[in-house]
Design brief:
alpha+beta; 7-stranded mixed beta sheet; 242 residues; globular; 2 domains; OB fold (Dihydrolipoamide Acetyltransferase, E2P); 15% helix
């Protein structure tokens, strides 16, 4: 049964990951033995999810004007429990928008309107991923989405590197309280994780800010997703280890 997929991938092509370089390029050996350079749609360090020799899945564009026909979409990790991890950082927000439209997160309450990229913060220079409104009895709900791929065993960790931008988001979300609800939604882009925690070893400042934000009333939703070459399923929330 595939009717519970939130998102379907286009036809994907299998390969073996060779290397990543200049951030946006990845060499991949296709099943035919040909080595191609694919676009790597991920601005982060991809810590733990860029091991040479790992199986990958690529999408292919029919646009002849594109310099790189292939795009890296998935990589398989965890030899003991092979798990696909989503690489394309443009997808989590698109998938969360689909999930919000279906009201898949009862934790967010009732809402009628979903707005994306709404300016907020003291200087209005930041943009929240989603603003949920429309119920007169509820506060507006500000939702920030963070793609999460780093893991230690079954523990999903965010961030995978120091992020001053992420630190700023936590400060700005906390400042919205108590006149709005503020939610950090962690998109766990792999199904092998059953808990979530701040990535203290990669960014201890972020970890401290997240714990402070949580204590002040910022809500944390660690959302676990199953990634397959067919598409993406929502598996529910996992416990947050603070």
């Amino acid at each position: 049964m595939t009717d519970d997929y939130l998102y379907y991938y286009p036809p994907l092509y299998s390969g073996i990951f060779v290397k990543r370089y200049k951030r946006f390029f990845a060499d991949v050996e296709l099943a035919s033995g040909e080595v191609v350079t694919a676009h790597c749609p991920n601005t982060g360090p991809m810590t733990g999810v860029s091991t040479p020799g790992s199986p990958v899945m690529l999408s292919k564009s029919d646009n002849e004007a594109r310099k790189l026909a292939y795009t890296l979409e998935l990589i398989q990790v965890n030899d003991n429990e092979p798990t696909w991890v989503g690489i394309n950082t443009a997808l989590p927000n698109r998938i969360i928008k689909l999930a919000l439209a279906q009201h898949l997160f009862p934790e967010l309450g009732n809402y009628t309107f979903i707005k994306g990229e709404v300016p907020y913060g003291i200087d209005k220079k930041s943009r929240i991923d989603f603003l949920l409104t429309g119920n007169d009895t509820d506060l507006p709900v500000y939702v920030e989405v963070k793609n999460t791929t780093l893991a230690s065993g079954r523990l999903a960790l965010f961030p995978d590197t120091e992020t001053t931008r992420g630190q700023k988001h936590l400060r700005e979300l906390t400042a919205l309280l108590p006149h709005s609800r503020a939610v950090m939604l962690y998109f766990i882009n792999r199904a092998d994780c059953t808990e979530f925690a701040p990535g203290d070893s990669t960014d201890p400042v972020y970890g401290k800010l997240l714990r402070n934000a949580f204590a002040m009333g910022v809500e944390i939703l660690p959302c676990r997703f199953e990634i397959t070459p067919i598409g993406v399923r929502y598996l529910g929330l996992v416990p947050c280890v603070m």
